[in-house]
Amino acid sequence: MRVLVTGGAGYIGSHTVVELLASGHELVILDNLANSSPLAVEAVRRITKRDVPLVRGDVTDGDCLDTVFGGADFDAVIHFAALKAVGESVADPLRYFRNNVAGTATLLDRMAAHDVKAIVFSSSAAVYGDPASVPIAEDEPTRPASPYARSKAMAEDLLRDLHAADSAWRISVLRYFNAVGAHPSGHLGEDPMGTPPNLLPYVAQVAMGQRDCVPVFGDDYATADGTGVRDYLHVCDLARGHLLALEYLAAGPRFALHNLGTGRGSSVYDVIHAFERACGRALPTRIVGRRPGDVVVSIADPRRANADLDWQPVHDLDDCCRDMWRWCQAHPNGFGG
Ligand code: NAD
Ligand code: WQD
Q1: Does the reported pTM lie above 0.85?
Q2: Which residues pair with 26 in a beta bridge?
């Protein structure tokens, strides 16, 4: 297939591009590089030994999209491009709705105009908010608790309404749980800008000696060790899910919704201990207060993706930490060196 990958220079996008190129698909990446580096695309070329064009452009820019869609016949779009910092979305909700919701609407509008009616959309477990119970299945009610999460829920609604209006659309919504890890080559990984808001990138920076200790956001939750529990998923398993979603869409028009998660939960201390095994040393921690807005436990019920997409994650948390540590050692300053 010829596929346009928006946000393909980003963390999950770049790993997915590797997976798709390895399977013989023809790709174009569209990214405004707001949260990524062109060196990620260089790394993709190095890993795959294939060229992939990077168009520097914005999904909110209809003219730019017209140029891209006018330049080649695309079979499908994988739409990763979004802003994803929950705290930032609380401070500047309009930026999130403009980029993530209006950006998706503009993209769909231009896709329709160019008769490209197949899309895989990056949604998030964040749309579930604080779940009534775990594991979380797709038919659980959504209760997004931040502007970021609401921007994803709104984009899902757009896609659902579009399919209701025109059943020729092929739509796959993937709700990712916590993406972690790096490409096993050590050439590609997550390169957060500034202080990492997420646990594993922070732990990695402590392991590299760039930060003193890991702040543990609360140890008094009703969990086995008192810390928050999440479903951490290797980014390469997640990437493969997109390949399978594209194949699923090739079977016919549909609106499909799938969780991508392992079905296993790990606490903050489970993560820190797994990283200690990977880097071979003890990592200092400090218990600080709970982070406002955090859910206690978030674990996927991945059975629908297992059944429909034949998708099974093959990596565990130790694999995630090992691959992440390899990437960090090779690139202590991310793509900057
Ligand atoms: P990322 O920030 O690394 O990648 C997003 C990419 O999109 C970046 O390269 C950025 O420059 C680009 N981008 C942003 N706005 C754009 C725009 N208007 N036009 C063009 N490009 C734009 O983030 P990621 O972790 O790779 O996440 C990819 C997608 O998956 C996002 O939609 C995110 O919301 C979603 N998601 C991520 C996680 C996670 O754990 N990382 C979990 C659930 C959902
Ligand atoms: C994991 C656990 C924290 C940092 C976020 C987004 C979500 C999704 C994935 C995109 C929690 C604890 C964290 C730290 C800590 N992204 N923690 N010390 O909150 O599950 O999800 O990323 O869609 O939308 O909200 O991930 O990695 O921030 O936190 O103790 O320095 O680690 O409290 O229990 P989260 P996270």
Answers
A1: yes
A2: 2
Q: Quick check: 252 and 199 in contact, CB under 8 A?
A: no
Q: Give me the amino acid identity at 238.
A: L
Pairing of strands 178-180, 254-260: unpaired
CA 248 to chain centre: 19
Structure tokens at 250: 């090739």
The ligand with the least distance to the CA atom of 40 is: 1
Neighbours of 269 (CB within 10 A): 17
| CA–CA distance, 230 with 203 (Å, rounded to integer) | 15
Pairing of strands 232-234, 118-124: unpaired
What is the distance of C-alpha 193 from the center of its chain? Answer: 16
Spacing, Cα 178 to ligand 1 middle (Å): 13
Using alpha carbons, select from 253, 247, 265 the residue that is nearest to residue 310.
247
The pLDDT-based confidence of 31 (bands split at 50, 70, 90) is very high
* Tokens at 225, concatenated: 């060790």
- What is the pLDDT averaged over residues 251-275? 98
Quote the ligand 1 centre to 100 CA distance (angstroms): 9
- What residue type is assigned to position 103 of the chain? G
Q: What is the pLDDT of residues 298-318, one digit of tens each?
A: 999 999 999 999 999 999 999
Residue type, 2: R
Cβ–Cβ < 8 Å for 113, 63: no
Amino acid at 200: L
Q: Is the CB of 36 under 6 A from ligand 1?
A: yes
